């Protein structure tokens, strides 16, 4: 049982100040812009909720949001099962364990724009390894700067390459914590592989998998740098995800009002979805 | 058993291919790259690396990145330790809300904050300093560090604290000499995650710097756009950005399996 201790607030004060400085002030700036119109020279006019209405009604926003949901959905549906499958197949002890862990963690520590640049070099139609293999060895026309489908496949494969390891490592951490006695008991009961997975391994991985899904959701929903460097949102607008569109409006066109309104709507959506995951997670905690 | 290890092996091969291609590209001459496809460098060259190590804009990019990443890791872990202790040991008014609010900052899209951050850090006179980037990255690293450390601290039985107090330890002395060693793997994992997310982030780091504190990642984007198509140079710079990450992973390799569960297994 935890003790009630109001002075614990003193312990959290440094964190509170630091994060508040970084979060509240910029957030207030965004709120400020979202309800005003400016023509430069620091002249602002009250605009009410017009920007919000404009953003929520604009087809451009609907399309970017739709692409964003599709992207995040595909990422989760591919990376989570694949990550669990790889974690299940990984060795539990011996020489290969650190080799697997280190090589798998490597993509996550590469700066995001380098990831984009790397995949750009990798997929160049005539001189990239993948591009050359597809076009000249397999004879499948592949150029992600021209073909929207190829661009989508490329950003999905790139993200699978980049982040599946996070799921693998989390799931693996859950798996190695299962005591050997559980498996012995399962063997005595002559449990099938599926039963072992369903009733022993999956429940043990539940907490870590929720963390994995939560992190993957947040990060894929906010993704900017990698697809921006790789495709620049193109061809056309086919891979313009929400963040890319937002930066285009805010820093490219300098439409501060609409960009700020869009930011707040964007943040609200992320928050709502994350809150759903979070409640799910704490509910699991309480049960066990 | 053999069949089972095929999946991880295939996965690792898939992970290594783009990295191999980047490294191979970095040892090729520009002529060879543009002349056509070659699986291995035909004429090995170190010209790309030599250019990076002799041009101050390039190598200062690396130094700048390492400075603000280290600074951020130190700040994040230091302020998170007492906070995580409070969350793991005590209940206080608003503790759950505060914890969730902290986590929401991990969810904020960096793109939302780019412009306001630029204005804020310009206003306080920190624009284009390492401190600015280090502080800005605290936005997402501090919540994560608190979350990780809280997990590890909750795994330490409360009896440890109580015994120490009975033995007459003061709180600071207990915290530093007994508690910290008990959660040192947690501190390592938290530091690893802070390093990782600060090292890989570009949007905020780029927005908050111009010349003095420009990170390597931003130097690369400028080269890619202004100096034409210098793929070999870009590949060499990219290859060099993988090295710090690889070194850090090597040091924490024994904690990775447990550490990724954030102490919650």
From TrEMBL, chain A:
PANTHER family: GLUCOSE IMPORT SYSTEM PERMEASE PROTEIN GLCT (PTHR43759:SF1), TREHALOSE TRANSPORT SYSTEM PERMEASE PROTEIN SUGA (PTHR43759). PROSITE patterns: ABC_TM1. The keyword Transport applies. The chain crosses the membrane at residues 7-25, 69-88, 95-122, 160-183, 207-225, 256-278. This is Sugar ABC transporter permease. CDD domains: TM_PBP2. It comes from the Bacteria. GO terms for cellular component: plasma membrane. Residues 65-277 form the ABC transmembrane type-1 domain. It comes from Roseibium aggregatum. It is a multi-pass membrane protein. Belongs to the binding-protein-dependent transport system permease family. Keywords: Membrane, Transmembrane, Transmembrane helix, Transport. It is found in: Cell membrane. One of its GO terms (biological process) is transmembrane transport. Pfam families: BPD_transp_1 (PF00528).
From TrEMBL, chain B:
Gene3D superfamilies: MetI-like (1.10.3720.10). SUPFAM superfamilies: MetI-like. Keywords: Cell membrane, Membrane, Transmembrane, Transmembrane helix, Transport. The keyword Transport applies. It is found in: Cell membrane. It comes from the Bacteria. The chain crosses the membrane at residues 7-27, 66-87, 99-118, 130-153, 174-200, 231-252. Residues 62-252 form the ABC transmembrane type-1 domain. GO terms for biological process: transmembrane transport. GO terms for cellular component: plasma membrane. The keyword Heme does not apply. It is a multi-pass membrane protein. InterPro entries: BP-dep_ABC_trans_perm (IPR050901), MetI-like (IPR000515), MetI-like_sf (IPR035906). Its main location: membrane. PANTHER family: ABC TRANSPORTER PERMEASE PROTEIN, MALTOSE TRANSPORT SYSTEM PERMEASE-RELATED. Belongs to the binding-protein-dependent transport system permease family. This is Carbohydrate ABC transporter permease.
């Amino acid at each position: 049982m935890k003790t009630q201790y109001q002075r614990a607030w003193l312990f959290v004060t440094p964190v509170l100040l630091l994060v508040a400085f970084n979060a509240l002030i910029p957030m207030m700036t965004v709120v400020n812009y979202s309800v005003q119109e400016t023509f430069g020279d620091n002249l602002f006019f009250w605009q009410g909720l017009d920007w919000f209405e404009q953003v929520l009604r604009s087809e451009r926003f609907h399309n970017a949001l739709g692409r964003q949901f599709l992207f995040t959905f595909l990422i989760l549906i591919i990376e989570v099962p694949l990550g669990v499958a790889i974690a299940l197949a990984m060795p539990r002890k011996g020489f290969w364990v650190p080799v697997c862990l280190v090589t798998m963690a490597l993509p996550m520590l590469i700066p995001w724009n380098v990831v984009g640049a790397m995949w750009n070099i990798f997929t160049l139609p005539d001189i990239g390894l993948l591009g050359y293999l597809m076009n000249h060895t397999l004879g499948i026309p592949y150029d992600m700067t021209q073909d929207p489908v190829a661009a989508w496949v490329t950003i999905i494969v790139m993200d699978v390459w980049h982040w599946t390891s996070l799921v693998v490592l989390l799931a693996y951490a859950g798996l190695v914590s299962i005591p050997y006695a559980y498996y012995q008991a399962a063997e005595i009961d002559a449990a099938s592989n599926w039963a072992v997975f369903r009733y022993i391994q999956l429940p043990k991985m539940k907490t870590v998998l929720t963390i994995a899904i939560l992190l993957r959701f947040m990060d894929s929903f906010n993704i900017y740098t990698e697809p921006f460097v790789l495709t620049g949102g193109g061809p056309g607008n086919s891979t313009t995800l929400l963040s890319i569109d937002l930066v285009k409006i805010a820093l490219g066109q300098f439409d501060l009002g609409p960009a700020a309104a869009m930011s707040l709507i964007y943040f609200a959506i992320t928050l709502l979805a994350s809150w759903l995951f979070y409640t799910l997670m704490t509910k699991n905690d309480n049960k066990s | 058993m053999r069949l089972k290890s095929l999946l991880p092996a295939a996965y690792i091969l898939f992970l290594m291919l783009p990295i191999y291609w980047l490294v191979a590209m970095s040892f090729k001459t520009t002529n060879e790259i543009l002349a056509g496809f070659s699986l291995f460098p035909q004429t090995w060259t170190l010209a790309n690396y030599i250019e990076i190590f002799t041009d101050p804009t390039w190598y200062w990019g690396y130094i700048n990145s390492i400075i603000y990443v280290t600074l951020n890791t130190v700040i994040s872990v230091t302020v998170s330790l007492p906070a995580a202790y409070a969350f793991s040991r005590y209940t206080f008014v608003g503790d759950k809300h505060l914890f969730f609010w902290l986590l929401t900052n991990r969810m904020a899209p960096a793109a939302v904050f780019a412009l306001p951050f630029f204005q804020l850090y310009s206003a306080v006179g920190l624009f284009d300093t390492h401190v600015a980037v280090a502080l800005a990255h605290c936005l997402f690293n501090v919540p994560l560090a608190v979350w990780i450390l809280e997990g590890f601290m909750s795994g330490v039985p409360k009896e440890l604290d109580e015994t120490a107090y009975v033995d007459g330890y003061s709180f600071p002395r207990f915290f530093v000499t007994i508690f910290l060693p008990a959660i040192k793997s947690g501190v390592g994992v938290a530091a690893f995650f802070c390093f990782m997310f600060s090292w890989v982030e570009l949007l905020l780091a780029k927005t908050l710097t111009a010349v003095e504190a420009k990170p390597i990642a931003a130097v690369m984007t400028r080269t890619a756009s202004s100096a034409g198509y210098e793929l070999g140079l870009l590949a060499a710079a990219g290859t060099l950005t993988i090295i710090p990450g690889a070194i850090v992973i090597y040091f924490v390799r024994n904690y990775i399996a447990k550490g990724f569960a954030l102490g919650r297994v």
